[in-house]
Amino acid sequence: xxxxxxxxxxxxxxxxxxxxxxxxxxxxxxxxxxxxxxxxxxxxxxxxxxxxxxxxxxxxxxxxxxxxxxxxxxxxxxxxxxxxxxxxxxxxxxxxxxxxxxxxxxxxxxxxxxxxxxxxxxxxxxxxxxxxxxxxxxxxxxxxxxxxxxxxxxxxxxxxxxxxxxxxxxxxxxxxxxxxxxxxxxxxxxxxxxxxxxxxxxxxxxxxxxxxxxxxxxxxxxxxxxxxxxxxxxxxxxxxxxxxxxxxxxxxxxxxxx
Length: 258
Prior knowledge:
Blueprint: E1 98-108, E2 114-122, E3 125-130, H1 133-141, H2 147-155, H3 157-160, H4 170-175, E4 181-184, E5 188-192, E6 197-202, E7 205-209, E8 223-230, E9 234-240, H5 244-253
Antiparallel strand pairs: 1-2, 2-3, 3-4, 5-8, 6-7, 8-9
């Protein structure tokens, strides 16, 4: 129902239900008692509610590590130093050179049998290369048909085969047989080897004595022990007396004996 004004719109004085004039200002009621239709206001959302309707959450993108270009002088954290018993992967070592070879070093395989190794000594490691009968036969076959000299050379192939390792790259020597192994210089705790004392040496000729004048029990031996001890292993070889000075010189060059 539309509301009816019950007051004077001219002065605001209340009007009676049947008044024809305003008692306050005298204005005629007919001109002011007009029914007015009040239209309800249109719906307006409450202020501040301006956010868009909620949407389904989206999956966060996977984080990608940024790739920085290499810079000269970029700091690299120090690497852990390998401990004793660590075996670096096979392959050439930068700056590795052959210092010498310990020929025909015999290592006990059991109570009766022994293996023979040619030990290639470098500035980084000692590579123990197994001497096999197949290698001796192959070396001897190269000298067949060369007369008497070739015959004797073929007969001594097993004793001279060590010379090939003076020119062979160390990593090739290590990989030529699955039984070959390497002992790294920085893992060696102690080396025991006592050669004869030399009083005079010129070329292949030398004069010396064993452990002092008068001799002893070692005078009858044709080999002398070479012991190499690391933190995890101990290797024992027997070295022929004919090569003892060569072995001692090689070990001194790498600082393993005095």
